[in-house]
TrEMBL record:
Family membership noted in the UniProt record: Belongs to the acyl-CoA dehydrogenase family.
GO biological process: branched-chain amino acid catabolic process
Pathway it works in: Amino-acid degradation; L-valine degradation
Protein name: Acyl-CoA dehydrogenase
MF terms (GO), sorted A to Z: acyl-CoA dehydrogenase activity; flavin adenine dinucleotide binding
Keyword terms of this UniProt record: Branched-chain amino acid catabolism, FAD, Flavoprotein, Oxidoreductase
Span of domain Acyl-CoA dehydrogenase/oxidase C-terminal: 230-377
Flavoprotein in keyword set: yes
Cofactor: FAD
Domain Acyl-CoA dehydrogenase/oxidase N-terminal: 4-115
Species whose genome carries this gene: Alterirhizorhabdus solaris
Length: 383
């Protein structure tokens, strides 16, 4: 996208965040739901199609541009991002990255329009960090696969009309090599949803179990058409998803710093605004350093990703750093707000709960550490 058009888009999103999303945050928290009117507006703005290439009806943003827009959106409650998050990110990108031309033509235009909502179904009750050990089975019968298994904590499952589902097509292979990624329409007979999960935060973002009971799916729905490559597709999707989550972290950093600065300048103790006190200034400065460092890492990683370089290590380093940084910033924001920071009406307590998930989903901090270290060791061994 040329820079003028992109600036126009970013300004439109910024206005939408200020005028529509931030004022609706308390309602989302109270109702544990994003109002349908806002979902419709997001659809009309084309936000579901950020990452779908233009030739398939999307906006075709680069990773750096997508991150810029997601950063704007997540200045408001992260639950708004969740509405579009899986369709823009992990739910659709398997098709964008590895799908056949027919799969792209069938699904991407509807995903871009927000007519199809995508969810990414990888995690299971017994397979979280060890994604390669998943047990959901897909057994070939003629030209269809029979799918059985349970997926857990699936974001947007209650809204989803399509799942990118990882299942084991080769029962003889226990690890990642026997896994395939399927496109599964959510209205296929045999699919049911568990009760909505009751979460620590991110109220309004919906997750639940998805149960597959003798679900019959055409073999042609394997992403890319070749069985056994689904784990690699999932890993490529997650590399990209980790840049997206860093952008989420950065948007939340921005808002927490804005709130902390405003409060520190208004709140008076000992006869002065608390912003005059050097111990408070120390916390504000540390927030800024975390924000600037995340931003620099984000810009560098997204640029290299867009240039087509192999950046798995960098994606993990970025996601690890960004999600830990926003955790530190949320903690300081509560501290700067003092007693008010613990009270719901000041909103920082909600951010404090909401950011906690960033260090867990799309790969825990510990998984990112192991990905980084393994890549370092591999490089050192082959040097
Ligand atoms: N891109 C492309 N291919 C990749 C890849 C990547 N980023 N990462 C791994 N692969 C490939 C490997 O090259 C290997 O291929 P070969 O068998 O041809 O050599 C294969 O995938 C298996 O890789 P590996 O041996 O590293 O897999 P492990 O089972 O050891 O697991 C981790 C790797 C732990 C990194 C993976 O399971 C993971 O990311 N877990 C976290 C999952 C997660 O983020 N869950 C969140 C839920 S989704 S919101």
């Amino acid at each position: 996208m040329d820079s003028e058009t992109f600036d126009l888009l970013r300004n439109t999103v910024r206005r939408f965040v200020e005028e529509r999303l931030i004022p609706a945050e308390d309602q989302v928290e109270q109702d544990d739901a994003v109002p349908e009117a806002i979902v419709s507006e997001m659809r009309e703005m084309g936000l579901f199609g950020l990452s779908v290439p233009e030739e398939y009806g999307g906006l075709g943003l680069s990773m750096a541009e997508e991150a810029g827009i997601i950063r704007e959106i997540t200045r408001a409650s992260v639950s708004f991002r969740s509405v579009i998050g899986t369709t823009v990110g992990i739910g659709s990108q398997g098709i964008v990255i590895d799908g056949t031309e027919a799969q792209k033509r069938e699904w991407l235009p509807r995903l871009a329009a927000g007519e199809v909502i995508a969810s990414f179904a990888l995690t299971e009750p017994e397979a979280g960090s060890d994604a390669g050990s998943l047990r959901t089975t897909a057994v070939l019968e003629g030209d269809r696969y029979r799918i059985n298994g349970t997926k857990r904590y699936i974001t947007n499952a209650p809204r989803a009309t399509m799942f990118t589902l990882m299942a084991r097509t080769d029962q003889g292979v226990k690890g990642s090599g026997g896994i395939s990624a399927f496109i599964v329409p959510a209205d296929t007979p045999g699919i049911s949803l568990g009760a909505p999960d009751r979460k620590m935060g991110q109220r309004g973002a919906k997750t639940c179990d998805v149960i597959f009971d003798d679900v019959m799916i055409p073999a042609e729905n394997i992403i890319g058409g070749t069985p056994g490559l689904g784990f690699k597709t999932a890993m490529k999707v997650l590399d990209r998803g980790r840049i997206h989550i860093a952008a989420v972290s950065l948007g939340m950093c921005d808002r927490l710093i804005e709130m902390s600065l405003r409060y520190a300048m208004e709140r008076r103790q000992f006869g002065s605004p608390i912003a005059d006190f050097q111990l408070v200034q120390g916390m504000l400065a540390d927030c800024k350093v975390d924000q600037l460092t995340t931003e620099a890492l984000m810009n560098a990683t997204a640029a290299r990703f867009d240039a087509g370089e192999k950046v798995s290590l960098d994606c993990s380093a970025l996601k690890y750093y960004a999600s830990e940084a926003v955790g530190r910033i949320a903690d300081r924001a509560v501290q700067i707000h003092g007693g008010a920071g613990y009270m719901a009406e000041y909103k920082v307590e909600r951010f404090y709960r909401d950011v906690r998930l960033l260090r867990i989903y799309e790969g825990t901090s510990q998984i990112q550490q192991t990905i980084i270290a393994k890549a370092m060791l591999r490089a050192a061994a082959s040097a």
